[in-house]
Amino acid sequence: MPVRSRTTIFLGLLVVLVLAGAGLFAVDVGSTTPDPVAFDDTVPVGLTLEAEYALGDDVALPRAQVFYSQYQYVVGYYGVETFVENQRGPDHEQRFGHPLAVYVSDYGGTGIELTDEGYPVTDRSPGWIAAEEAWYVVDSDARTPAGDTVVSFADREEAAAFAETHGGTLHAWDSLLEVPFESDDATVARDRVDDRRDLADERVDAAERLAERPTSVVVGEDAATVQGAIDEAPANTTVVVPEGVYAETIEIDRPITLAGERNATIRGDGNGTVITVTTDRAAIQGLDIEGVGNRTKGGEELPVEMDDEAWDATFTKYYAGTDAGIGAYTAEELLIEDVRIDTPASGIITYESTDAVIRNVTVVGPEDPSDGLAGMLLYHSPVVVEDSTVMGARNGIYLFRSPTAVVRSNAVEGNQIGVHLMHTNDALIADNELRGQENAGLYIMTGPVGNAVVGNTVRDAAIALSVGGSDTYVASNLVADSELGLLVGSTASIYENNVIAGNDVGAEVSAMLPTNRVVGNDFVGNDAHADARSGPLRVWSDGDAGNYWQGSATVADGDRADMSYSPTDAIDRRLHRTDGTPTLVRAPALRALAGLEGSVPGMRTGSIVDQAPTCEPNNPDLLERTEWAEHAWTCYETTRTIHD
C-alpha cells in the first residue's frame, strides 16, 4: 500500500468512529490542545469487564485519558497509576508517540467517600482536569478491583483533607511520575504456567483419594435402586453399581463415591438432569449416562441457594439451571472420572464447585451441535478438565467466572466452539487437540486477564484461536488449516513460538491498542500471513527478535533478514505466492520501502511490520507436524528447505 505520512493520517476534523458498539474519538494531532472526551468514547485499559459489572452504580473509580501523538484514538486508563506505569515501558513511546494531553478525574466537590472495600463513591461524577494541574494522593485507603489507586484533586487543600482522613501522601504531577507502582503483565501468566500445572496435579491427587473409599453398599444386593443405595451409604464410603441399566434420576447429597462396574448405565427419563450432586467430596466413576432432558435455556432456579443480587445471577440461572447428564452445585472437590454421557443438552454442569476434577470423560452431543448447549458448562468453578473427549456441542468446554481453571490434554471435536472462556482469569488451556469446530476452536472473551494458552493444536475452524482480554500468554500452539488462524483481540499480551500454517489468513489484529509482543512465531503456507483492522501500525518484533515469514527471505544479516517485512503491505503479502521472490525482494524500490516502514512506527494505520524477520523457522519441530515445512525458505538460499 502507498506510504502515508503521520500528518496525512491524522489531519482533518475530529471524527467519531463506531467500533464494537462504542464511539471512539479520532485525534486531530494538528489542532490545539484537545478537550477531554466522554470516557465511554475512549479505548479503555486497566480493568476487566467483570470488575466493572460487579461495581455499584455510585462507585466512581479514578480515571485518566490520554491523547497521543502517534495514536489515532484517545486511551482511557482506569487509574492514574495505570498510565504512569504503562508509559514507563521501553517501547511505549515507539508505539504511541508522546502524550499530547493528559486529563485525570477531579474529585473536588464530589463528596467522595470510600466503601468498606476502599472503592470511591461520590454524590456526582468527577469532572476532568489537566494532569499537570492536579494534586494526587498516593498510598491512601482508596482501591479499585485491580488494587491500590491514586486519587486526584484540582484543589490542593481538598487533596490534603482526603489524605488526612484516608491516609496517603500528596504529590504534584512531576513527582507522581517518579512513584513506582506494582502491576502485572503477560510475563506473569507466562511464568505461572508451571505453577498452574502443579496446581492441577494437586487437585487431581486430592480427588483420586476419593476412589479409595471402602465399599458399603452394592446396588441389587444391599439396596434395590441406586438412589436407595446412596441414601443408605455412610459418608466417605463407596456405592457399587454392577453392570446393567438403571432407569433412575438420582441425587448425591452426601460425600460418597458412586462407582460403576463394566457397562453400568444410569438412564434418565428424558426430563431433567440425570445425576444431581449437592455435596462436597463426591465422586462419580465408571458410568454411562443417558436419557438426559433437552432443556438448553430458560432455567429459573438452581438446587442450591445463590446470590440473586449478583450481576450475573439471571444469566447463570438461565443456563446453569438447565439439563445435563451430571449437574453439580456447590460440590467442592468433586471427581468425575471414566464416565460417558450422551446428551441432547449438556454433559456436565458445575456451579461453585471449587477444585472439581473431570478426567477421562466422553461427552457426545446431538447430531446438530446447535441443538445442544455444552459438553461441559463450568460456572464459578476453578476445575481441572483433562484427558477427556467432547463432541457435538454448541460449546465444547465452557468456563464462566472460573479463575485458575486448567483444561489440558483433551480432544475437542466437531462443536460450534471448542473451548470458550467468559469472565475467566488466570486459567491455563494447554496441550489440547481441537479439530473441526464450526465457529472457533478457542474463544476467550469479555476482557479477562492473565490466561495462558500453551501447546494446543487447533485445526479446521472458522477461527482457530480468538484471544481477547489482556496480559494473555499464547505460546507453542499449532494453528493450521483454518479460515482464520489467530484473531488477536487482546492487549498487553505475549504471542511467541506459535506455528501458524495453511490458513486462509494466518493472523488478524482487532485490538485497538498496539501493546502486544509478537515474536518467535512461524507463518508458513497461509494465503495471507496477517491482516490488521483499524488502528495504528503494530510492530511485531522486539529488538533483534522477530518472526519467520515464508516469502520474506532475503540476504542474511546474521540469523536475521537484512530487511523488514510487512505482511499487510500490498507487495510483501504476495511474496510467498510469487515466483522469482529471491530477485524481487532485493529490488532497490522494495528495499527502500522496507527501510522506511521499519524506521517510522505509527506512520500507517491498519498495518503490521516485523523489523527483524528470522531467516529460518523458529519452531521447526512444530512446523514438521504440518504439510508446510518444505515451503520454509531460508535467507541463504531461498530455494533450500529446512530439510536440506
Topology (elements, then pairings):
Blueprint: H1 6-10, E1 16-19, E2 22-25, E3 43-45, H2 49-54, E4 63-68, E5 75-78, H3 80-86, H4 92-96, E6 99-106, E7 113-114, E8 120-121, E9 127-130, E10 135-138, E11 143-144, E12 147-148, E13 151-153, H5 156-166, E14 169-171, H6 173-176, H7 186-191, H8 193-208, E15 215-218, H9 226-232, E16 238-241, E17 244-247, E18 250-252, E19 257-260, E20 264-267, E21 275-277, E22 283-285, E23 288-290, H10 313-320, E24 324-329, E25 335-342, E26 346-351, E27 357-364, E28 374-379, E29 384-386, E30 389-391, E31 395-400, E32 406-408, E33 411-413, E34 417-422, E35 428-430, E36 433-435, E37 440-445, E38 452-454, E39 457-459, E40 463-467, E41 473-475, E42 478-480, E43 484-488, E44 494-496, E45 499-501, E46 505-509, E47 517-519, E48 522-524, E49 528-532, E50 538-539, E51 548-549, E52 556-557, E53 560-561, H11 581-584, H12 588-599, E54 608-609, H13 620-623
Parallel strand pairs: 3-5, 15-16, 16-19, 17-20, 18-21, 19-22, 20-23, 21-24, 22-25, 23-25, 24-26, 25-27, 26-28, 27-29, 27-30, 28-31, 29-32, 30-33, 31-34, 32-35, 33-36, 34-37, 35-38, 36-39, 37-40, 38-41, 39-42, 40-43, 41-44, 42-45, 43-46, 44-47, 45-48, 46-49, 48-51, 50-54
Antiparallel strand pairs: 1-2, 4-5, 4-6, 6-9, 7-8, 10-13, 10-14, 11-12, 52-53
